[in-house]
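Quick one from the shared queue. A colleague (R.T.) flagged CheC-like protein domain-containing protein as missing a structural entry in our internal table.

Convert sequence to structure tokens.
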Amino acid sequence: MTPVLTADEHDVIVELMNIGVGRAAHALSQLVQDEVLLSVPKLQFLEAANAREVFCRSMPDLLAGVMQGFQGFMSGRAALLFPEERSLELVRAILGADMSVDEITELEQETLAELGNILLNNCLATLANLLHRKIQTDLPQAFNVDTPHLLNRLSLHDQGDGSMIMLVQIDFSLRASDLQGYLAFLIDLHSADAFIEALRQYLVELTS
């Protein structure tokens, strides 16, 4: 079952992710030499059983992404997702406009993996640090997938075993290149109780 959060707990998750993504955006802006503009995160908790329907309704048909496993006070996978049709533009923004299409295509997976490493690590590390917890991340893996198969690609469970997903959607754009897309963090929270307990302790510290 998805967790039942109070309004304060929901707002804290949004704020923590906002801080983490803000730090990640700063790292990305240095990488692409352009200002990165972000929206306020949109947060949803999903049961694996209905995640596929939500993905198909809210995301493009084809995605380029980077996934990364993590372990610690909570465990699972995080994913950074882009519309596949825009991924080469993003890679070009990182590598430079003077490279040929063939060169950019050849380096696409490696570049996206490095980008995912920067963004996902910033977000997960910030979340853990602010909650006074520890987390470790695996090496990122770049991939392409059609959205109906995203759940399977991330190796999340859809057998109704109580696993659930925290989906955080953030719209972003690069000012100079007018490149638009979004970041989505899909976190399989088998350890949801530990995560929510950390949130509640954080709230107590804020109000004490």
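The mean pLDDT is 83.
The helical segments are 7-32, 48-58, 84-95, 101-130, 150-153, 192-207.
Added to the table.
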